[in-house]
Protein 1
Amino acid sequence: MTVDADGSVTAVMVAIREAGPGDVLCVLGKDGAVIGEFLALECQRRNLAAVVVDGRIRDLAVLRDLDLPIFARGAVPHAAPPGSEGLIQEGVMLCGVDIKPGDWLVGDDDGIVCVTVGEATSVLEKAEATIASEDRLRQRMEAGELMFDILDESRDPGLAGL
């Protein structure tokens, strides 16, 4: 669920009302916080998968304790004002990445990756192969081998590219 908030918390409220379970709310914000305690609670109540804000949020102490992943550029103590209904489900440019409705976003403590629907299968296969390679590397290191010896491609072609 994409929303260009146009500096308004109203646009975010409209998008949350339209969002469904499993959606990732992707918000292009401006100066004020576009997500705070109550909007985040509503996102959680509606079973959204996550919230991604290219902008600011507030009420961090509460947001950290929610069972809802929230990614943002930073926090400010003041909310964005009510105003325009912005643009919803039209795609947004977040942190230099064009996010369109239907794209897949995967995030963790290191950041977020956006994958188009057409790329999802290929990216998933590559990610699973990387995880398998890293698991083999970890097992061998735990068994006492040196990482630099393991990465010699002639010893384990499956680890090439790590």
Note: The chain has two domains: 2-111, 121-159.
Protein 2
Amino acid sequence: MTKPRLLDLFCGGGGCSRGYAEAGFDVTGVDIAPQKHYPYPFVQGDARAYLAAHGHEYDVIHASPPCQGYSALATMHPDRKHPLLIAEVRKRLQDTGKPYIIENVERATLDGVVLCGSMFDLRIARGWLRRHRKFETSFFVWQPECRHPAEKAVGVYGHGGHSGKHRMLCAREAAEIMRIDWMNRDELAQAIPWVYTQYIGGFAIEVVRG
């Protein structure tokens, strides 16, 4: 049986892509930056331009627009300008008529479920992974519940962490807890655990199958 095709826009190192592949999709990633460790077919280029030209070729489309403008970083450094692409990307996705997913940080202007490492038993000896990410979908996804107490949470907070957060994981710990063994530290800092999108992908593939 031919696998349904999923397009992963702004794919980075492929954390989201792995989850969709595990859920049963044939995945292609697109990113403006080269991704030498990306584990699936990859196109280097502008995600929005690729979506306009090729979005109709895929069964489901995922997008992870840059998150910096929606994160705590934007509040801490209001003088820094970061792109805010969610509204534009949402409109472009809706125009394709395809089932879609938009992923970003918890503060982002999305309407959907929030996933956390504790929902998937992601933990090391020092605590549960607190890696909250929001997913807006054009189809129903059930919202699980967080299982970790706040004091037992550890996190991966990008490049260097943010003041006031819980302990940041080192690269080895981050790779272990997120079950990602193909990325370097910088790629890990921007990645999410692939079990998140394996969960989302389970709902998406049922939509494709009707």
Note: The radius of gyration is 16 Å.
Protein 3
Amino acid sequence: MDNQLPAYLRWVIRRFSFLAVPNLALLVCGLTLLAFIGQHVLHAPMDRFMFDPDLVLQGDWWRVFAYPVPEGMSNPLWLIFYLLYVYYVMNALEQHWGPGPLTLFTFLSYVSAMGAAFVAHRPISIWFYVVQNVSLAFGTLFPNLELLLFFVLPVKAKWLAALAGVLLGWQFIVGGLLTKIFLLIVLAPYFMFFGPSLYRTVKLRWQVRNNRKRHDTDQWR
């Protein structure tokens, strides 16, 4: 377990360690593949598993078990890229954190996306926001690790995370109050896991910057 995690999260993880799911990346990718086959090969009505809070309240309770298939993805080649990315990122997090923290992070991301959908009163692709949280966590923990995008273009993880952060930040800035609340709820798991360490990092850099300014000012006196 990562000792940099907040103390209360470490307590929760130890308390509920028996619920940890090992090889979670493989499970998620397997369910995604099954959902894709069901939707595009067997032509099963997979849209019935699209999370819609209004329909859930009307009795479609099974929608809380949303399949992790990317919305609108119908090309098998794009699916392969997506599965490889999800597996690599989630597996790296499990190796760094362990099964318990990754299971908790994924579960909280899932639940927070559901909660945000109820607040916004609109259907959403839950796993889209789960993967966004996972991507931000990966970019935060392994900023200089290079990924081969489409097996060709080398991109550092921090730039992928920064791109996701910029897009979310832009939505937050231009969106209305409901959009802002929605995004804050969706990203709550990321801030729960990384908020304290990010605060300490920003505070330390601010102190270093101020110390340098004072040192430069003293030199010119």
Note: DSSP finds nine helices and two strands in the chain.
Protein 4
Amino acid sequence: MPPPDESGEDRLIAKYFRPLATHAGAFGLGDDAAALAPPPGCDVVYKADAIIGTVHFLPDDPPDLIARKALRVNLSDLAAKGAQPFGFLLSLALPQGIGDEWLAAFSAGLREDAERYGCSLLGGDTDRTPGPIMIAIAAFGTLPHGTMVRRNGAKPGDLIVVTGTIGDAALGLKVRHNPDIGAQWKLDDGMRDHLVLRYRLPQPRTAAADAVRRHASGSMDISDGLAGDLAKLCRASGVIADIAVDRLPLSDAARRALAADPALIEAVLTGGDDYEIVATVPPAQLKALKTEAAAAGVAMSEIGAVIAGPAEARFVTTSGERLKFARPSFSHFD
């Protein structure tokens, strides 16, 4: 029996989240804060992202996948900086109607990924909200002192690479909103399911973090679309990125959709939720970067080059046409 003076919030934390607090410095979530030290010779990299119901996930998405997405979008940023996961804080704002079944599935999914990526829950907060669910995570990663890969390191002459495939999540969201569109794009069931899962469950490229740290000159994760995020890197570095559209890594499902509707190239490049890494790398380091990433199970594709000039990202087709976008990047405030 719980103590008679224990609050509902205390019971919720004890039942669903205390089992995730495996680091000794979390004190079993029994205190107001955690205390921990990074490994000797390491810097701590900090990242915070929130996901909100109806904005970043849909109400009928499975709770375990929602939890895993909330953690993974943060781990993606850590990977792009070259950092390995260490721990995280979790803040939940829950509307009425969220009960034990939802929380049990949510905490199970979160625990699965906390174990998968080797990062312990260190603390957080729980609240009620009249609005949609909000899940805010602050994640911490570690890397050798002074080695974080920033946005501002790209240099003229560098090559540009991306991990994985681009555009699947944006297309998957379209399928979630309109299930019939898969038939219009001539997708089979496996292709449709692939796109939806890429929207629901990012694949943070943590396995490639060390390779990025050792060989990339500049790097960031792709959360708001390749076009917009690469433009941010260009502004930070003061360079131009020239991208060959025909060299973009695309899944079979995305290629099938684009064959049916070529105008989807804008969604592929600007739609967001890829959670891949875009990085710049000196030519002499390209082979080592790709080899080490491949050995870690992460595909990396060369898609363009960095040149001197006013900061911008340019996307050029095989015919020499430069693509223009009505909305170059996803933004919550446009």
Note: The beta strands are 42-52, 84-94, 120-128, 134-144, 159-163, 218-222, 240-244, 276-281, 300-307, 312-316.
